[in-house]
Amino acid sequence: MTARGRPSSVEAIFAAARALLDEGAPISLESVAERTGLTKPGLMYHFPTKSALMDGLVDHVARSAERQLRQRLDIPIEEATARQRLRAYVRWAIEGPHQRSDLVMFGDPRLVEQMTHRWTEHFSPWVHVPADMPPAERARLHAARLLADGAWLARASATFPLDDDDQPDVLALALDLVGTEDS
């Protein structure tokens, strides 16, 4: 569902919801309205249900990540090869500052299936490995993505994140797995 209304109110709602997630607090229409300084009906003008709010929040977080990914890719994604897209993804996942609210798709156990589906739609273009690649190349690309996913999850969840000293070496290893266009 698309949010209605003034962008400033919607942005404030997203900022409040992210702050709650970053603090480990539950998301509800009430908690977000209170944090934003809106009434619950005022919040519901933009997001009539919690499901609509969470869908909007997933899209908001994913669009932010996509902007960061595009900054790591020198060409439009439609023109990029699988290796170029995955190199950008690996860099984003391992280098980027990540926070707990990046894991928004897990923010409500009752909506996790719907939210992970939405998240997957946003990220599929970045991590898709063509079926017609040789198996060894496909395996390397999948391994690099899974390594990057682990680094991203560790940083976002603050569960055994990479030390700053180790990050460049892990990034180099992951990029080596991705390879270059002529490898």
TrEMBL record:
Keywords: DNA-binding, Transcription, Transcription regulation. One of its GO terms (molecular function) is transcription cis-regulatory region binding. Residues 7-65 form the HTH tetR-type domain. InterPro entries: Homeodomain-like_sf, HTH-type_TetR-like_transc_reg, HTH_TetR, Tet_transcr_reg_TetR-rel_C_sf. Residues 28-47 bind DNA. It comes from the Bacteria. PANTHER family: HTH-TYPE TRANSCRIPTIONAL REGULATOR BETI (PTHR30055:SF234), HTH-TYPE TRANSCRIPTIONAL REGULATOR RUTR (PTHR30055). This is TetR family transcriptional regulator.
